[in-house]
Design a protein that fits this description.
By secondary structure, this protein is of the alpha+beta class. It has helices spanning 7-12, 20-30, 36-45, 48-76, 84-105, 111-123, 126-146, 155-227, 229-255, 262-275, 291-312, 344-355, and strands spanning 279-281, 316-321, 325-330, 358-364, 370-376.
Length: 378
């Protein structure tokens, strides 16, 4: 298993026509220009079978080097890629061609070691690649000192070192590009998931309140049909109006423009509590609340009153406002473990409070009942 991406792994990240699939061959082919040195040496100073073998080995080496970009990418990068020993064997085959070339090209055959060093830096883990490059560099320097007739001008060793260093820089750049692409992908997936959660939360908060009030009014209308038809008809009209308002709210949420009005929520809260036959003790003005706190407080009113109507069994509901705090209290049965106090609506409300820099308190009201409070930190 590779601990870090090789340069080849980075190239494999792109498979579209504009990526390395198109330009990788050209990039490889351009550097074959330097094989003109061993080619010239073979043509000028070898004859007969030695020349034929030398030219064949040189052409095969060039083809192997270029094929590396295609074969390793398409075969080696799929399903875990080629094993390390297979990559080393590939490099060993290239080195074998260099040895076959030696009788015809002589010292100029060492030029091919530059290509092997660059290929090793592309295909192997950095630790192994450095070992291969060091071996090639040491072999080139040693051979120029021990082989009769060969001279050491320092150019071959420097070329091997420079090629390895250049590819190492490319390797680091590609590695960071791959990591950045992976990070961007993760961030995009998280953003999509967060947006789904936000929309689900808004939809729950919007429809939860509206459907609760519609249910209460529909039940009230059903009880009044025989005893008070006019009142029942009025409640049915309210149900229709609430249903239309809920539909408009959903459309607004889908469009991304859903905002609550504290004044509007207080009016809706009074209507919902009256329909549920719960006495409403609500503030008549909201002037004390700063504009930046009103939307959060509106969500608190909506969620708190929805829970009072749906779960509490209360006879009275009180809402208290100040510049930085809001409280929704009832005289019902109070919070129950795993009940409304831990429902989806309160989870969403807590997220809203966190975003607004406020603290949310859910628990027992003084004297019994349920208490929902939010305080904006100043």
């Amino acid at each position: 298993m590779r601990s870090t991406p090789t340069l080849l792994d980075g190239l494999a990240e792109r498979s579209d026509g504009a990526g390395p699939r198109r330009w990788g061959w050209l990039a490889a082919g351009v550097w074959l220009f330097y094989l003109a040195q061993p080619f010239e040496e073979i043509v000028r100073h070898s004859h007969g079978i030695v020349r034929v073998v030398g030219l064949a080995a040189l052409l095969l080496f060039a083809a192997t080097y270029v094929a590396f970009f295609g074969w390793f990418r398409h075969v080696g990068m799929g399903s875990g890629g080629l094993a390390v020993w297979q990559r080393l064997a590939y490099l060993g085959g290239m080195l074998g061609l260099v040895l076959v070339m030696l009788p015809a090209a002589g010292q100029r055959a060492i030029t091919c070691l530059v290509y092997i060093a660059a290929t090793a830096m592309m295909a192997l883990e950095i630790r192994i690649a450095l070992g291969v490059v060091a071996g090639l560099l040491g072999g080139a320097e040693l051979s120029m000192r021990v082989v009769p007739g060969w001279s050491d001008d320092g150019s071959y060793g420097f070329a091997i070192f420079l090629a390895a260093l250049a590819v190492f820089g490319m390797r680091r750049a590609v590695q960071r590009t791959v990591e950045l692409a992976a990070t961007r992908k993760d961030m995009a997936e998280l953003a999509v998931q967060e947006e789904r959660n936000r929309f689900a939360r808004d939809l729950h908060d919007i429809l939860g309140h509206s459907l609760t009030v519609i249910t209460v009014k529909a039940e009230l209308a059903g009880r009044l049909i025989a005893a008070n038809p006019d009142r029942a008809a009025a409640e049915v009209a309210d149900v229709e109006s609430l249903a239309r308002a809920a539909l408009a709210d959903v459309r607004a949420a889908v469009a991304g423009y859903r905002e609550l009005s504290l004044a509007g929520e207080l009016v809706s809260a009074r209507a919902a509590l009256q329909a549920a036959e719960i006495k409403a003790d609500l503030p008549t003005t909201m002037d004390v609340v700063p504009e930046e706190n009103r939307e959060l407080f509106a969500w608190v009113v909506r969620e708190g009153v929805t829970n009072v109507v749906r779960h509490s069994g209360a006879k009275r509901c009180t809402i208290r406002l100040s510049a930085a705090t809001i409280e929704v209290l009832d005289d019902g049965k109070g919070p129950t473990p795993g009940g409304a106090a831990s429902g989806h609506g309160l989870v969403g409300l807590r997220e809203r409070a966190d975003q607004a820099g406020a603290s949310l308190q859910v628990g027992q009201a003084p004297g019994g009942g349920f208490r929902l409070a939010a305080r904006v930190e100043t």
